[in-house]
Amino acid sequence: MTLEKSLFPCRIVELPIIGGYIYNSLVRDVTNFAPYLSFGAPYPANYHSKLLLVEDAVSPVIFINQMKIITLNLLTDSYGLRPMLNAAEIFFNSAGSGLNVLVKDMGQSQVRAAITSDDVEGVLFGMKNLNKNILNNTALLVTKGMTLAMQTALITATTNIRNTNDAKNTMVGVRSEATFSNMTLYNAFWSDFLSPTRTTGALIFKISDKAKYKDYVIAQMMARMRHDEAQTQVHGIVTDAAHLPVNKAKVKLIPVDGGRTRTVYSDAEGNYVLSGMMATAYNMVVTKGSLLNITPITVVTREHIELNVVIV
Predict the structure, then answer these.
(1) pLDDT, tens digit, for every residue of 58-94?
(2) Separation between Cα atoms, residue 103 and residue 92, nearest integer Å
(3) What are the two backbone dihedrals, phi and then psi, of residue 260, each rounded to the nearest 5 degrees?
(4) CA nearest neighbour of 285 among 274, 296, 277, 276
């Protein structure tokens, strides 16, 4: 199947945002549009109805809510491997040169790096290697205290992560397929409502009102969207279980629907600030050494959200 070519000069995720800006301008300036019968009733209502359909297609509520749970479980299970890896490495060190590979090649370092990078595929690949090496050295590791139950726990954890990741990939695949049919909706919204409104509004105000004229220029809408994103902020204080500020804690904001991860570090007083994010659902992962906190959060454009975090 060939993806229908988009007719609009922006990313799909930006289409409902720009459409919303121009709809608000249309409502404000409805009397100026009144002489042009094509834009009379029920045009504004129909515009708004189509806008709602586009918003739901771009960020479907059910999909986002399901992805919140899946991505939260993936992060929790992946980071939950870290104490298990630490314990396993103690047994590897005890076995030393008796292992059939070097301790550093058993696979734990590879898994740790993948966890830090939030690379689930890398975690699964590394765990496959780790579990294989443990199996090949079971007899020796048992003599060092690594029980079969401990080994089974690692395999079970790997299976859980794989199953959850498969569920995520299935959902992403379904979402991608939906894009093929949704492109028709997006193009129709652009052709039938957004483009005629912005063209007409620009012509109405080009001479009489330069400020309102800019409200119908796509380039200005793009700049406004970037400005609004820049004003969006998540901030707070990172503390430990003793309520003491944590310096240089790593704070990551990971979009549940994919996209750019934002990362900052807390200062000596535990303060952190993340800004310039798109309005969507995220998982916030805060780490410092073995300390960890994973918190779901939904960001709203131009809002300043205070989220204090305790890592334990």
Answers:
(1) 989 889 999 999 999 999 999 999 999 999 999 999 9
(2) 6
(3) -75, 130
(4) 296
How far is it, in rounded angstroms, from Cα 95 to Cα 74?
31
Q: Which two tokens stand for residue 246?
A: 């944590």
pLDDT > 70: percent of the chain: 99
Q: Which two tokens stand for residue 54?
A: 């586009």
Cα(83)–Cα(255) distance, integer angstroms:
26
Considering the entire predicted model, what is its pTM? 0.85
Report d(CA 74, CA 57) in Å as an integer. 25
Phi, psi of 35 (to 5 degrees): -65, -20
CA distance 23 to 53: 14
Task: Domains for the chain: give ranges and CATH numbers.
Answer: 8-228 (no CATH), 232-310 (2.60.40.1120)
Give the CA dihedral 44, 50, 53, 57, nearest 10 degrees. -130
Q: What is the CB neighbour count within 10 angstroms for residue 191?
A: 12
Looking at every residue in the chain, the average pLDDT score rounds to 95
Predicted confidence at residue 2, as pLDDT, reads: 59
Burial bucket for residue 310 (CB in 10 Å: 0-12, 13-18, 19+): middle
Provide the strand spans (E) within the chain: 233-239, 250-255, 262-265, 271-275, 281-288, 291-298, 304-306, 309-310
pLDDT of 180 > 80? The answer is no
**Closest C-alpha to 55, from 107, 15, 105, 88:** 15
List CB contacts of 90: < 8 A, sequence separation 6 or more: none
- Average pLDDT for 32-47: 96
Q: Which residue reads 């305790």 in tokens?
A: 310
